[in-house]
Design a protein that fits this description.
The structure is a homodimer.
Chain A lengths: L8 H19 L6 H8 L4 H7 L2 H21 L4 H13 L19 H21 L7 H22 L10 H16 L14 H5 L9
Helix pairs in contact in A: 1-2, 1-4, 3-4, 4-6, 5-7, 5-8, 6-7, 7-8
Chain A binds a DNA duplex through helix 3.
Chain lengths: ~220, ~220
DNA sequence: TGGGTAAGTCAGCGATCGTTTACTTAGCTA
DNA sequence: TAGCTAAGTAAACGATCGCTGACTTACCCA
């Protein structure tokens, strides 16, 4: 066997990150105590303050981790088809290891910095989806529909986490089919969906000028 | 002016319920303290224990209130068209008074009884939607798609609560158009939705033949 | 092989949590 | 109008929260 060092700061840090991501995603920020996390990680509580300054710092570190993973995946899926597959995978893929990390994007800590990361990431994902649909990322109507696809995906994650049957145990392939229909209906490249709307969307577009995604 | 009784148990109870519903929906269960609620309501903290036994009891009372409101609305909208309108209204309607009460259905208190109310309500809403679509409430594939519509609605509520632009400030009529497309794609009475995809969806339907949960 | 330092432990701080108890007071009725 | 009861108040309980500072110990290198 590999003789693991009994004292390894990087490994301990990672243990804390893993435990925290699970707890924060599953139970939420304020329902999770630092002692819960430390116990799960099999590590002393004081090390959270040492490695992450504070509980908020630990949460931000968790958030940065999932955001990085997510941006990496998004970067590799630029077409509408592969993006749809990515969504179905992230939503319905096997999460035997950890609870679905998309949940972390919906957990609020009350910390302003973390909140900003959350919002920036969600905004970036929407724009990516709009681009994948063949449109411009600042077309407000298209962006709205892209965010609705995002909302459907995140809502599905939540309901699955709530163990709502049969959605909770639906397979990834079933979800893929549904999301293909959903994406086709909302983001179809051919604009045939002029069913029934008629009001202005202009003023909503202007105030969405936040920082952009970086690799 | 009307001279309101300075001591009115029913009115005070309602003040607490209103303040609690707002706080629980906005900030979540564990991030809200009973002192927050009592202060918002302009009422002494001890009255929460008196009228609702505990913080959990207060949360259950809030949940029952929104569930009753919701079931009332659902009862009056049995067709797929009116149900779609109801969804758009609940999701995008003016929530100047209170934060969107659908949020409460997604807030977990850790209390088992409250969790059961939550799950039962979500399950019931899905079945209602499946029936409105002209199907049977125990058809697992249809129920899955109905729950996906539900997921889209709830996800939208969450992203609007997170103030994601332009979704957060989109008008009800814009949302109505989107949700009409979405419902048409997922719950179209005529099963023509096997068209748009090239991947197989058939074997996915086969393994989902087991009997589902009870009404 | 001994010493320096990073890694980890331990106990406890002050604050806040939900809840309870003893008390005061307003309002209806006899 | 006297008095009883329900409505509301004030204070504090024990538990738990996030966090800190002093301490111990394992590991690496000279």
């Amino acid at each position: 066997m590999t003789n693991p060092r009994r004292r390894d700061a990087a490994a301990t840090r990672q243990l804390l990150l893993d435990a925290a991501r699970r707890r924060f995603a599953e139970d939420g920020y304020s329902a999770t105590s630092v002692r819960d996390i430390a116990t799960d990680a099999g590590v002393n509580v004081a090390l959270i303050s040492r490695y992450f300054t504070s509980k908020e710092g630990l949460f931000r570190a968790c958030l940065r981790g999932t955001v990085d993973d997510l941006k990496q995946s998004v970067f590799e899926n630029t077409t509408l088809e592969s993006a749809t597959g990515l969504i179905a995978e992230k939503v319905g893929g096997p999460h035997t290891e950890q609870p679905n990390q998309l949940l972390l994007l919906l957990r609020s800590s009350g910390d302003e910095a973390a909140e900003q990361i959350r919002l920036d990431t969600l905004g970036s994902l929407g724009r990516r989806l709009a681009v994948a649909a063949g449109g411009e990322p600042d077309d407000p109507e298209l962006l709205l529909r892209a965010q609705l696809v995002l909302a459907a995906a995140l809502g599905t994650v939540i309901l699955r986490a709530a163990r709502l049957q049969p959605l909770a145990t639906a397979g990834q392939d079933e979800l893929t089919g549904c999301f293909q229909n959903l994406v086709a209906a909302l983001l179809a490249p051919a604009p045939e969906r002029t069913a029934a709307e008629g009001t202005a969307t202009e003023e909503a577009a202007a105030e969405n000028a936040g920082p952009e995604e970086q690799a």
